[in-house]
Amino acid sequence: MPSLYAIGDIHGQRDMLDLMIQRVPFQPEDEVVFIGDYIDRGPDSKGVVDRVLEFKLHHPRTICLRGNHEDMFLDFLHEQGGYQPNVFMMNGGWATLESYGLDPRARPLRLPPLHVAFFQDLRYRHEAGGFHFVHAGFRPGVPIPEQTPTDMLWIRQEFFESDADFGRPVVFGHTPMREVFDRLPRLLGIDTGAAYGNKLTCVRLGEGKALDLYEVHVSEVRA
User: Fold this and answer.
1) CATH number corresponding to 4-222
2) Which residues neighbour 207 within 8 Å (Cβ) at sequence distance 6 or greater?
3) Is the pTM of this model over 0.85?
4) H helical segments located in the chain
C-alpha cells in the first residue's frame, strides 16, 4: 500500500536533503509532499531544486508547495513590487543568487527554464490521506477554499496558537522549532530549523497521526 510523506523546510541544505532521501524508504508509488521553502539561507538552493526535480522523476506523485521564500524570489526575479525593496535579499536571498551564479544588479535575471517552471507551478495547499498540507497555516474562522495566499505563506501564531478546527489535521512548516510541533489530531509542524543549524524532518502519515519520523541533523553533513 502506498505511503504518504511530508518533508519540512529545506532552505538550501542540499546535503541534508540527499541524506534524507537515502534514509527514508520511499517507493515510486508513494505520495510525497514538500512543504515549501526550498531556497535561501543555506549554501545550495539551486542544488536543492535540482534534487527535488530529479526526485519527482522517480516519484511522480510528489507534490511541491510554495513557501514564502519562493514567493519572495519570484517577486524579486520578475520585479513585481509585491514586497518591499531588498526584502528577499534580507531574508537569505544572497545565498540563493550565489548558488545560481547571479548578480542582482544584472537584469534580467535568468534561471534554467525547468527551475522557472518549478517555482511558478508551486501550489499553495494540498489535501491527501485525510490531511491538509500548507506552508505556513490557515486563518482561523476562514473556510479553506477562501484562505488567502498571504496567510498560507506567512501566518504564524494566529494559526498554531489557536484552538481552531480545520476539519482535518494540518501539516505545516514555516515557523522553525527545535522539535516537531505535534498537536495532532489538529496540527503538525515540521520545520525543525534546517536553516539554523538544527535538523531536517520527514514524517510518514496515516490514520490522522505521524506513523514514522525521520531526521537528518546538520552535524551529520558537516562532520
Assistant:
1) 3.60.21.10
2) 130
3) yes
4) 14-23, 45-58, 68-78, 87-88, 94-100, 113-120, 149-154, 157-160, 219-222
